[in-house]
Amino acid sequence: MGLTQLLTPPAVPKKHQTVLVVDFGGQYSQLIVRRVREFNIYSEMVPWQKAAERILADRPDAVILSGGPRSVLEPGAPDLDLSLIAGIPALGICYGHQLMAKNLGGVVETSSDKEYGSRHLTGIEAGSLASTIGVPEVWMSHGDQVRKTPPGFILTASTDTCPVAAFENAAARQYGVQFHPEVSHTPDGRKLLERFLLKHAGLKQDWSSESFIEETVASVQGQVGEGRVLCAVSGGVDSSVMAALLIRALGERAVCVFVDHGLLRKGEAEEVRETFGGHFKANLKAFDEQAAFFAALKGVTHPERKRKIVGEEFVKVFERHASELSDCDFLAQGTLYPDVIESGSSTAAKIKTHHNVGGLPDWMRMKLIEPLRWLFKDEVRAVGRALGLPEEMVEREPFPGPGLAVRITGEVTPERVRIVQDADWIFRTVLREHGLHRQIWQSYAALLDVRSVGVMGDERTYEHPIVLRAVASEDAMTARAVAIPFEVLEHVALRIVNEVRGVNRVFYDLTSKPPATIELE
Ligand code: XMP
User: Fold this and answer.
1) Which of 44, 115, 168, 182 is catalytic?
2) Which mutation among 352, 397, 408, 474 tests ligand 1's pocket best, with the greatest number of atoms within 8 A of CB?
3) What would the pLDDT profile of 279-315 be if each residue is shown by its tens digit?
């Protein structure tokens, strides 16, 4: 980490209650955290190896033991000393259910009846936690089975191949379910979680955007003291919300820096200036560096070279403006909770260099603060709304750091950027008019570096084509082209060739990722 020092993140001051999700490596563990938070109850995930320490230090208000890929019967399997959570309401799910059974004196066996997929619950005990499952369809994914409930527990549901699909010891407030209430394939799973959290664990719904803002403002003020924080704003959701939060906490001492490289979408640079400089009256330093970026990109056509140049130019901008910024003591970083959870995981093969993880000038190696490190993306958007950011900014799609440079094949010139901006504006306006933007993860227009012949007003044209791309995705790792109705595409194509000078053809990109990527370069 060089000289940069990441301060131990201040746990959000404990004004709210906490549900600790102990992660045994299940594929849905993060989803459990999200589900709990949907009830306005704060939840965090901790790997099982660190759970004991965390429980002793923080005494959570409830604990959920997640699923996991291993068998509780294997030597060295993930484990937790359940005496640590005695007195704390607990729900075991799948592996967690089996761990509860094994560690509390029940019997778990490897079974030849493996259950994967949707199953029907039977023998549901009236009044039990399992009785919240009105539609008795539940999602199963397990090999081992609980054969015998632990002493003090009662059986509350089965399936035809799983004798102990749910059990509970209501007096001890301990519950186990073999199925996954957190996934949407268990239609009444939400009701079960709600009953556990609100009724059995008696939790208060004290976690909201407003309470997050209040607590984070207090914690940032405590951390920064009389210092100043440098916060780079790009126009994207995370940096905008982070800046708005820091402005709320620190006023003028949140130094917002916007580097206008000329490679944003149409109108976005103006919106950043208007929102932060105008609406929030922030201490905004907007550097118009378009000329420098275009000069550096002149004649460059190789995709990786472009990415590298944009990254290097950013560093140079900060170096040029060092004297205006070097009195900042802290650097704000837009880390989100999934990054925190996943940090330390291995990296895949490098396909593209992301410019925003590049080096920083030495003087910028300040202490880091990460005010959004507790939030998922949808929560960041909710906080942005609560802070009064414009809807267009809060709902903005992910956008690559090198901007339109990677949506223009061949050389990047101001004229070619203008073409892409205008075509992109038309495409997104029409998508919005048809309400199609809601199913889209990212959509854009790109310019190709080939020319083809057309005819306009009896004249021969020899111009460039625009490629339209609109993809649906969960996390940008995989993506599929969105099935935009043909008439809508035709309308967009017609508008683009008529309204954007320099374009005589429009294509729609049908490729999924993989094998293509979302961006062209
Ligand atoms: P690809 O094109 O690799 O993109 O399928 C995956 C996601 O990453 C975004 N992207 C970037 N984001 N800096 C970023 O912050 C970058 O340099 C960068 N390059 C691509 C892309 O928009 C998509 O969401």
Assistant:
1) 182
2) 352
3) 999 999 999 999 999 999 999 999 999 999 999 999 9
Peptide bond into 163 cis (omega under 30): no
Two structure tokens written together for 464 = 């460039």
Q: Among the CATH numbers 3.30.110.70, 3.40.50.880, 3.10.20.740, 3.50.50.60, which is that of 17-200? A: 3.40.50.880
Do 164 and 148 meet the contact criterion of CB atoms below 8 Å apart? yes
Q: Which residues, other chains included, contact 466 with Cβ-Cβ below 8 Å and sequence gap of 6+?
A: 419, 420, 423, 445, 446, 447, 448, 496, 500, 503, 505, 506, 507
Cα of 388 to ligand 1 centre, how many Å? 27
pLDDT surpassing 60 at residue 349: no
Q: In terms of CATH, what superfamily is 209-394?
A: HUPs (3.40.50.620)
User: What's the whole-number average pLDDT of the chain?
Assistant: 92
Mean pLDDT along residues 41-55? 95
Q: How far apart are CA 127 and CA 110, in angstroms?
A: 30
Specify whether 182 is catalytic. Answer: yes
Q: Is 403 in the pocket of ligand 1 (CB under 6 A)?
A: no
Quote the pTM value: 0.88
